Amino acid sequence: MTLPKKISTHNFWSFLWHAGFLALAKNFMDVDTIIPAMLVEAGGGAMHIGIMTAIMLGGSSFTQLFFAPYLSNKTFKKKFLLGGINVRIISLVGLGVLLFLLKGEQVGYVLWLVFLFITLFSLAGAFANVSYYDILGKSVNPQKRKTFFSSNQIISGVIVLGAAFLVKIVLVWKSFPVNYALMFFIGGALLLIASGGFWSIRETVPSTMKISGVRNFLSIMKHELKSNKKLAYFLGFINTQGIAISFLPFVILYAKENFQTQSSDTGNFLLFKVIGIVFVSLLVLLGAKKLKYNLLLYSNVLLSLLLGVMAWGISGIDSMKYIFVVGGVVYSLYTMSMNGLLLEISGTENRALYTGFAGAGNILPALFPLLGGTLIQLFGFGSFFALFMIIIASSVFFIFKIDCKK
Question: What is the pLDDT of residue 153?
């Protein structure tokens, strides 16, 4: 079935509506700054940061191994997309209530309940993610996709940049834990508004692929790995370069332990990260038709290595702003290039399936934060920074093999 241009354009703007308000919501639940800072304020250490990062940035993606077979059997996936985002809204509100009622003597006990809400929030995101890419892939025409990803980043970045000042105000307005409770209440409300974009989507192209279960899913994955060599190299890429997005939470911990950062500093870190996102997103948007994925991929490797070097040489709290600017650039480039590559190496019918492959193969990013937390506890931050740079450097091999000309 051919997708009419009018419907494609309508869906393009529906996805951007969601992206814009999601970006605003992300300010109040940022996984690189706000959530790790909240855990540290609550008494968490390196292992807590490792567990949190593993759940939010790696482990949740791995669960797509189970979600993808189920969702691939569904002809239309809009209601599952809406179900996932609604659970995320409920989780944020629940987390806000928990923190709002938190008393000093309850910190240790409540810390694990915080993990419960974070886990629910992350799993719901992984569930929705499978449907999201399937619907995006068949509801927006191919020639508009790179424009969508770059527009998504720049619009989101501008919105987040403006809202970052509001985040700083909320963080210093009240003391812990009320300030973070307010953050999650606001985040939940904004995510509710963002869901309006999904309600507006016109899903007209049905899916016809059927999968009988996880065993059949793994069998198909094995077949696809043999027939589509770029899939194997793509999985190698996300398992190496993918650890870059789990780096900044440990920098937050490093700053707290070495420079005794406060809530206002966390707001500044978020602001500098957003500056990096806006800067690189604007460059990509302006050159969307000329820039090749290969350039974006290799550039991100070099910047990720620079990120490790800069973290290793931190001399004071003032120098940390540069780390978060580069961290924002790395995050933005990885998000755009990974999502774009996934759409390029997959076809219309198997896109939900390939999203599941990407999640199931997301092993190292799931384990790296746990390993990183252990390394920091046993040997210090230097060993963690060294391991990070070694793994990042190895991603060059997979990028070379993918050799995406688009």
Answer: 63
